[in-house]
Amino acid sequence: MLSRTALSLYWLGRYVERADFIARLVEATVRLDVLSPRPAGEVAWVSALAVTETEKAFAKTGAPIAHEPVARFLTLDATHPGSIVRSLDMARDNARAVRTALTREAWTGINQAWLLFQNRATTGNAATTLNLIESVKSATRGFEGAIHRMLRNQTTWFIRLGQAIERADNTARLLDVKYHILLPEGEQVGGVVDRDQWTTILQTVSAVTAYRWFYSEGLLPANVIDLLIARSELPRSLAASVEEAVDILNLLAKRTGLHGEADRMARNRHARMVKTQSRQIIAGGLHQYLQDFLAENDELHFAISRQFKLG
Amino acid sequence: MRLTIDHRTVYRFSEPQARLTQLLRLSPEDTYDQSVTGWSLHVDCDARMREGRDGFGNKVTMLYVEGPITGIEIAVSGEVLTNPSHGVVNGAAEPLPPPLFLRATPLTERDDAIAAFANDAVAGENDPVARMHALNGAVRKQFTLDEGRPVSGRTAAEAFGLKTATSRDLAHILATAARSLNVPARYVSGYSTVDADDAPAPHGWVEVHIDGLGWVAFDPWTGICADEAYARIAVALDAAGAAPVAGSRLGEGDEEMDVDVHVEGGEGQ
Amino acid sequence: MGGVSGSMALAQAFDEIMGQPGSSVPRAPLSPLGNWIDGTPDAELRRRQEAAEATFRQLGITFAVYGDSDASERIIPFDIVPRIFLNSEWNRLSEGLIQRVQAINAFLDDIYGARRILDEGILPPDLIFGNPQFRPEIAGMRPPHGIWAHICGIDLVRTGPDEFFVLEDNARTPSGVSYMLENREAMLRLCPELFREFRVAAVDSYPDRLLETMKSVAPGNVAAPVCVVLTPGHYNSAYYEHSFLADSMGIELVEAADLVVDDDVVWMRTIAGRVKVDVIYRRIDDDYLDPLVFRPDSMLGVPGLIAAYAAGNVALINAPGNGIADDKAIYSYMPEIVKFYSGSEPKLPNVETWRCREPQALKYVLDNLEKVVVKLVDGSGGYGMLVGPTASKAEVETFRAALIAEPHRYIAQPTLALSTVPTLADSGLAPRHVDFRPFVLTGSRGVQVVPGGLTRVALKEGSLVVNSSQGGGTKDSFVLMDDGAPPPAPPAQTQMQSQGIG
């Protein structure tokens, strides 16, 4: 496989995942906003901007922090890399560059998602925003399905590898930002917190039902952290993303004969993850843990680049 | 004449380059009046080199360097023996016929001012050789010589509007002027003792095609024919086509180039 | 793609289905098509046409119109009524095409080599040496197996049952073959009944034939030559076609950055390291192929590619320098060129052409500007062209001035009564002018014409401009495998079995 093809597939995976994540984030924030009395609603949008690292870019627009402008900014504003439309643009660009490697179904999935955003200037009220978000999610689900129906070969593995790396990044940042906002300095993990706020996190990673499955004692921050970090049964948890990266790198190694630093780094990370308990993480400082995790995730990204000569 | 030539080209890059691919026209070849008695091409790093020919029949060396690389020095040196021939070139590889050399190029675009100048310069002359001498002399008289480094991308028309000119500018102007008179003309890149020591580029002059005589070399730098004090390396429609080094690099950053040419003339044979 | 010629009124044109002007019944062998048209309501035809176009849009079979900012995602309109060639018509046409393409190859080999044709005085030398399409940069280099124009698209017009004329040769990177294949796919899906009425030669072997052609011209004795398609990238207007071809041949679609030349050998960068490349079907113009030899500012090209080509280590399809063979200034000499290399009269004539560089021709053209079509020698895509009979007075005068100023840049042709094919217009079926681009492949084992091609149709009533950039559409082009009455349709079962075994 051409190095450039592999690179485009990998980024295709990352951008589709990113678009999907931002869609979920906006969706959950809309809900939170609707449920909260002011100014809690505003806090919700501030944190959405923080998770996507777009606070500064948004401030430049001069718009007030409220549902309509921020939702529009995160969905339709193509001028910054933290929006759905920009992620889909990039995903489609990468997909176009590797048209020959994709099935028509997979390409059509991306193209349809992209078409949703053409010539659309406003998200409208909460209901229309949610409708738009629903169509994005359904299109990315369609793409996901198409990927699973494609041949099990390098093509799908590079896409899924990109998704796994991006997912790990997204979940870690979501947790880091929300945790900061929800648990100001000095407060105890496990204290009384706003139920709606924590539900937002679970909604963003589609884990509301899963949470009930795993934990019987009601909504506790420590459990949410446990679920999102250590439970590999949850597809969007750090543990699951870390495990998936190892699995896909294994498959690639078997097919291409290319073993290397990326495999070692991913296996190493996985081994540590299995041993770590969320209680220890909280005790040792969640923020530092997540920052280290994000840095290591970036390093793995570069190791993958080098191992498969993607540069 | 015995010409001893030493030509160094140094490139420095502000960022390490992943690859370097260069096409070199740095090797003189034998003609009836030019014998290459010793020649070497050396680079200061690991490189693969392949010899070939371009469409104009010039000998080229392809240079392939694997990075990371932050600079390269290409050095050629050697000795060429020349005979006086009144500028007439015999025995060179001639894969393309003279009419091709009536063509304009982006660097030698047809220009009304140059055409008018050419017409004035040859007015009253009927003999084709005399006409070219008149034209060459007129170009020489028009400009003050500039021994500095040639300006890349400067066209004949642009150069014609200035007061000073490098040997490359003069050659472009002469070629453009000759073509406007329907005389095939080509750019020659090579070495000559007429340049100052430490010249910042190889020398450029012109060969025009005259029926019955063939290609005759004129140097507007001196205003006379290019004779035994010259060693020709490459010909083309303009300086870009005969460039000593055409390069492409894979990597970020800027480059700096430094060229150093020494030509010494001595007693031949 | 540049295609046009002039016309008389539509009523005087030969219709490829209905026959001679004024006929109200189809030509006898094509009566099943007449029945099909009569038996299928316009609304149903329109529904199928829209279904086909919806598919094209979804697949992203798009093109860009230069200078049109929002056109990067437009599709070329598709017309549901096919054009049909009888087997005997096709055979005669093929012979002419093969002769012409052989001559084009012989001409290129000669003009960049011994230049016998100039020595013999067949062509004026300044026509070659003064022509920017003659590339001195590659003079003396010879492609592997001596083949230059591996893929030719020859643009034809027709004025009667056996009156075909070459309008233009395309020996550089002719495009449009994806339309031939996708149009057929659409017809098979939407109008399967037509393929029971007619035995239509298959076009879907094109990718196999192309790959075979590519492999046959690989340099040296490589057992399994590595072939690739080189695209300028996915922003190019023909990117769909590039990816479609690579995909259907099962070879890599590469961009310049995927290739590297080392030691005069071309390699592609893969995740497992470098792989040597033997044959490149490049869809990049000569100017951008290699920044060391052609335009130094090219970002699309591969440094060192021409050195690898000169060393005989890679085959470029088509060869660089081919523009001299399909140049409009050369076109008018094609009959002489064909005669010179084949030793016989051309089987396919040119459209009569006045070379405005010749004073007498110029005078004629200036005296008859309202009747003729004037073209820029170096223009393409229907730009820089005057169609006398439909032009305004002002346009005619603009061209008159341009012709007087630079006559050597123009040629002129008479207005022909271009053939028509029934086409679904807003008001129902109506005759519309068409042209035709068949594709001719040349490998080391000979020349072949793919039985089909790209029919372009001028959708505006009376219009002669078929270019996609100027409101033209496309049709499927059937080549019948026999001239007689259609055979009884074989039971579907048998067909499937024979395919399964074959």
Automatic annotation (TrEMBL), chain A:
InterPro entries: ATP-dep_Glu-Cys_Ligase-2, DUF403. Coiled coil: none annotated. It comes from the Bacteria. Residues 1-308 form the DUF403 domain. This is Alpha-E domain-containing protein.
TrEMBL record, chain B:
Gene3D superfamilies: 3.10.620.30. Pfam families: Bact_transglu_N (PF08379), Transglut_core (PF01841). Residues 159-222 form the Transglutaminase-like domain. This is Transglutaminase family protein. It comes from Sphingomonas immobilis. The lineage of its organism: Bacteria, Pseudomonadati, Pseudomonadota, Alphaproteobacteria, Sphingomonadales.
